[in-house]
Structures are given as structure tokens and as C-alpha cells.
């Protein structure tokens, strides 16, 4: 699993979500993880549990641990749900949720914002992590200590306008010129291969690639984008549903979020046990990396919010205004329709 690829998908989602893409159902997920089993009745009550799927944004990682914990610890069962965690089909998680193929998925604020400009009915119902943990990273020998140091260096990315807009925003604040950065496509190379080959820095999630750098003994300098521009402290990732699910079955959304919040609270309180749950569900993952990543990330799920999942209108407005100012949106949106805290447990 490479979070470099997750970031690439994140950036491409901003550009590729369209009404047409969400108009029909895509192929079924190619892999399923974390199924709750064949028993579909609430123990002792005889009441049938409701089958529910939640689709991931990419391959399983520590962003998703709360979902796996909610399955493993029986929180979904207690809420009357038989939850299956699946990976996205060819059209991606946003398409599957927006079309109604699945009721819930993992997405990103930037993707939801772009979708709303095109009348795609995605709604963010919880912030998985309170603050943006992504940023630009470089091996320490490249001496990139501030955005100004990007000048004269080579950036490895995916050719998305979002990348250059973010880089420009944080460089301008330091009086630097983004046109002095050489940009190349990283292709299929991961961060560690690319920085040894032909780039100086790249955009990563610290919770995975940064932690992996620590474990490899390959120290990096990390410049979190949120530290240089308030508007870039957006929610990534988020849990999403669609407007139809909210209208037709609000109690399903409420029950799903109650159990999910319990799963993330478990991961907050028990990071090592939660890491082992993820490893058990997805045994191909690097155990040492998952454990180290989980210990780093668990406190950041809730962070300074009054409860896990809480979203602020200010965060949505700041990022939407920034995207519009950078011509990344065709029009402005009503951010109050892009997210809701209504279904989070009190």
C-alpha cells in the first residue's frame, strides 16, 4: 500500500468527479475486507440486522482503522447493522456513493467540494481526522526547510492543477516563485524510489510515508501545508453519504455514525489493539508500519474537536473560497449543504 498513490487519487478526484460519472453503477468492488460474517440477526433479539456496505477511498490503511474496529468490536452489530468494508470499483468511491450503489464511503473535502459544483449529491457526514496531515517532504540532504527552498528543486507529482495551486499558495507567503520549481511526473515510483532517482520533494501523508521514513532510518524534512495557509487545513479524509440516503433513511445514517464513532474512539483509546485489528483484517500490511502509524495518528482523529467527526463551517468555507480563487471550481457552492454534523452522536 502506498499513500503516494492515495494522494494521487485524492488529487485526481478533484478533477474527475462529474455528474455523468455518477449517473450509473460501476463494476462491483474487486476486493472485500472486514466482512462481519454470515450471522445477520441481533443476538438475543431475533431482529434481522441491516446489510450495509462502506467503500474505502483506496487500499486499507490507518485512516480506516475505526471502521475495522467497529466491525471487530461488534459496535455495528449492536447498532443493528451488518457492515461490510469494500474497496472501490473502477469508478471510485465517490461514484459508488453518489449513484447510490453503496450508502457510505471514504472521500475528501476537496472531492466533495468539486462534486457539489456539478450538482453531485455527496454529503460529508464526519471528518475522519481533524487537521490536514499532508505536506511536502524531502530528504534532509536536500535542505528544504521552507517553501522558499522549493526554488531550483525538482518536484515529483501527478500533473494536477491542485498541486501547483497549493505549492503556489505556500510559496507566495514566503516571497518565493513557483515558476522556479521543476515539476515532473513520478509515474509508478514511490516516494523513496523517486527521491533517489530524479526528484527532490513530493506531497505525502506523514501518517504513512513519513512514518515509513522514520522506520527506514531515512530522515525527511516535512512542511505541512496547513502551517503555511489556513485555508489548506481542510478535512482529509471524510466519511460521505448521498442526499437520497439522508432523506430516505436518516436513522441508518445515525446508526452507522454512532457505531463508527465508537470504532474511532476505540482506536483513539487503544492504538496498539486497534492496529492489530487492522493487521488481522488485512494481513498483507506491514505490521511494524501499521503499529507505528496508528500510534502517531490515533490522537489526531479527534484532536481539538469536541467530539470525533465534528466539522466546522469555517473550514469548509475557507477551503472552498481558496479553490474558487485559484480557479479550481467552476462556481461557488453553499458549503452548508456539503457537510452535516446532524447525525453524529451527542
TrEMBL record:
<feature type="region of interest" description="Disordered">
    <location>
        <begin position="27"/>
        <end position="48"/>
    </location>
</feature>
<keyword id="KW-0732">Signal</keyword>
<feature type="signal peptide">
    <location>
        <begin position="1"/>
        <end position="20"/>
    </location>
</feature>
<dbReference type="Pfam" id="PF09084">
    <property type="entry name" value="NMT1"/>
</dbReference>
<feature type="domain" description="SsuA/THI5-like">
    <location>
        <begin position="61"/>
        <end position="274"/>
    </location>
</feature>
<protein>
    <submittedName>
        <fullName>ABC transporter substrate-binding protein</fullName>
    </submittedName>
</protein>
<feature type="compositionally biased region" description="Polar residues">
    <location>
        <begin position="30"/>
        <end position="46"/>
    </location>
</feature>
<dbReference type="InterPro" id="IPR027939">
    <property type="entry name" value="NMT1/THI5"/>
</dbReference>
<dbReference type="InterPro" id="IPR015168">
    <property type="entry name" value="SsuA/THI5"/>
</dbReference>
